[in-house]
Design goal:
- With 187 residues, the chain is of the alpha+beta class.
- The protein folds into three domains: 74 residues; 49 residues; 61 residues, Head domain of nucleotide exchange factor GrpE (Nucleotide Exchange Factor Grpe, Chain A, domain 2, Roll), CATH 2.30.22.10.
- It contains three helices and six strands, in the order αααββββββ.
- A three-stranded antiparallel beta sheet has the order 1-4-5. A three-stranded mixed beta sheet has the order 2-6-3, with no helix packed on it.
- Helix 2 packs antiparallel against helix 3.
- The chain is rod-shaped, with a radius of gyration of 43 Å.
Length: 187
């Protein structure tokens, strides 16, 4: 009988070990599933962070390139601003030449120099701002006085304005119509 009891004890112990190992395997499987789930979440989080960082870098690079292009595009503006008074003086000098001297050789030489200077500046992106007859635009024009003429329209230009690559370098100094009739009776 002792043998029978020992055998029964052994079978009972084996059954208990089998049950524990089934429970243990189920717990291990559940723990592994949880660990896998956490690892996937962490991997997705890392991937999303990397993608954001990559997008931020691309945006930074594009912004930096755009700023560099703008710097190159508008860097010459300061030099051109210094040349504009000389261009204005040449225009005034040519306009003040008496009619009987307009065909002299030196006058043509000065006109040629003025045209070359203007062509060089235009090749760099300088454009005159249209003013006469245009509606007054405070972004392009600086009103220095009011005069007779159509209300809100530019009726006179005191100093030419210029744009460099669509950016106002110097606004036009203009006379704006007050709505009063001018000498010809127009409103």
């Amino acid at each position: 009988m002792i043998m029978y009891e020992e055998e029964a004890d052994r079978e009972l112990n084996e059954a208990e070990d089998g049950a524990e190992s089934e429970v243990s395997e189920a717990e291990d499987t559940e723990l592994l599933k949880q660990a896998l789930s956490q690892a996937r979440e962490k991997a997705e989080s890392n991937l999303a962070g990397w993608q954001r960082a990559q997008a931020d870098f691309i945006n930074y690079r594009n912004r930096s390139e755009r700023e560099k292009a703008d710097l190159v595009k508008y860097a010459k503006g300061e030099l051109i601003m210094k040349l504009l008074p000389a261009l204005d003086d040449m225009e005034r000098a040519l306009a003040a030449i008496p009619p009987r001297q307009k065909n002299l050789g030196w006058v043509e030489g000065v006109r040629l120099i003025e045209r070359k200077l203007r062509a060089t500046l235009e090749a760099e992106g300088l454009e005159p701002i249209k003013a006469l007859g245009e509606p007054f635009d405070p972004h392009l024009h600086e009103a220095v006085m009011a005069g007779k003429g159509k209300e809100g329209a530019v009726v006179g230009e005191i100093e030419k304005g210029y744009q460099l690559n669509d950016r106002v370098l110097r606004p036009s100094k203009v006379v704006v119509g007050s709505g009063e009739e001018d000498e010809e009776g127009e409103t």
